[in-house]
UniProtKB/TrEMBL annotation:
Cofactor(s) the protein requires to work: Zn(2+)
Protein name (database record): 3-keto-5-aminohexanoate cleavage protein
Domain of life: Bacteria
Keyword Cell membrane: no
Gene3D superfamilies documented for this protein: Aldolase class I (3.20.20.70)
Stored Pfam families: BKACE
Classification of source organism: Bacteria, Pseudomonadati, Pseudomonadota, Betaproteobacteria, Rhodocyclales
UniProt xrefs under PANTHER family: 3-KETO-5-AMINOHEXANOATE CLEAVAGE ENZYME (PTHR37418:SF2), 3-KETO-5-AMINOHEXANOATE CLEAVAGE ENZYME-RELATED (PTHR37418)
UniProt keywords, alphabetically: Metal-binding, Transferase, Zinc
């Protein structure tokens, strides 16, 4: 991404797209009963409340009535239909892990099978996006958490902590390419959840091989534990690696969320918040719900002079419904250099 003179002026930046992640599958309802929805109506209403607060993208997981993460696609269909009817302009982004919460104490926190995850392309009503990880990887979501982060929650249970500490992401190349193909056939946008520059490079190679003809809409997930750490050096390197046609959201965890989101707002990037990422105020004097976190970002963004996108504007920024015809168009639209043709030498750039 290029940062020319004036890039930090709000009049030269896109409006801010806020992604809300209010379902928090790593927590049990007893961890934050005031803000963790359990019944279907509560889960639908939470989406409505997040939208009314200023979030235009909803990162979606589903719970059963017993409070555990649902693995039933019928429940996803029910939630998608309920939200679509209430807030039709909201971008509905299904979390590609489906449910990584352990079934019982001591069980491994794991993603469902390859075939089950492919079924996300069959959801009805069709979501706008499904998130996808690239390259199988460690996902130790508790590595950078401290004792104060988990105090008084289910993650303070050694068995639960260990379950999340050992979690891994299955995302091999064959499965990833097939998943993108199935999503694209159904008109569902792939939203890339990337941990490192090497994963971004894998996405670029897929685009060059004509197997990933989609806009580069991505989130940099800086949670440690196999992912980047949320520091300015990693962020600057990742932003530098992103081509100019990409749309980048920042994600991290716990008390890193607000500082990183403030950087995103200042830089013209986009933000994510909600109890899936953090449940505490910056002083840890109380828990902070998803709606309050959204309202905080709206207030800060307006202090920066940057307006928040509404639902229709967010759809334009995220290029919802856009797909490309082949590798050449995909590379050009996303801002990558073209593929080298026979006889071409030197560094390449797109023709004017």
């Amino acid at each position: 991404m290029n940062f020319l003179d004036g890039s930090l002026f709000p009049e030269n930046q896109q409006k801010l797209v806020i992604t809300a992640a209010p379902y928090g599958p790593e927590w049990m309802p007893s961890d934050f009963p005031e803000d963790i929805p359990v019944t279907m109506e509560e889960q639908i209403q939470k989406a409505v409340d997040c939208y009314n607060a200023g979030a235009t993208v909803l990162h979606l997981h589903v719970r059963e009535l017993d409070g555990k993460g649902s693995k039933r696609l019928s429940k996803f269909n029910e939630l998608l239909a309920g939200i679509r009817a209430r807030v039709p302009d909201m971008i509905l982004q299904v979390g590609g892990s489906i449910s990584f919460a352990p079934e019982d104490d001591g069980d491994t926190a794991k993603w469902l099978s390859d075939d089950t995850r492919h079924m996300l392309a069959e959801l009805q009503p069709t979501p706008d996006q499904v998130t996808i990880a690239i390259n199988s990887n460690q996902m130790n979501v508790v590595e950078q958490m401290c004792e104060a982060d988990v105090a008084g929650t289910s993650l303070a249970d050694p068995a639960m902590y260990q379950a999340y500490r050992e979690m891994t992401i299955p995302a091999g190349p064959g499965w990833v390419e097939e998943h993108i193909r199935r999503l694209s056939e159904k008109g569902i946008q792939t939203h890339f959840q990337l941990a490192t520059i090497s994963q971004l490079e894998t996405v670029e190679r897929m685009m060059r091989r004509n197997v990933c003809n989609v806009p580069l809409i991505l989130t940099w997930v800086a949670i440690g534990g196999g992912f980047d750490a949320p520091n300015i050096y990693n962020l600057a390197n990742f932003v530098r690696a992103c081509p100019d046609g990409s749309v980048l959201t920042l994600e991290t965890s716990m008390l890193n969320v607000l500082p990183l989101n403030m950087m995103a707002i200042a830089m013209g990037l986009h933000v994510r918040c909600g109890i899936e990422d953090n449940i505490w105020t910056q002083r840890r004097d109380r828990k902070m719900g998803s709606v309050e976190q959204i309202e905080q970002l709206v207030r800060i963004s307006r202090e920066f002079g940057r307006e928040v996108a509404n639902g229709k504007e967010a759809r334009e920024i995220y290029k919802i419904g856009t797909f490309y015809e082949g590798a050449d168009e995909t590379l050009a639209k996303n801002g990558f250099a073209p593929n080298r043709k026979p006889g071409q030498v030197g560094f390449l750039q797109h023709a004017a």
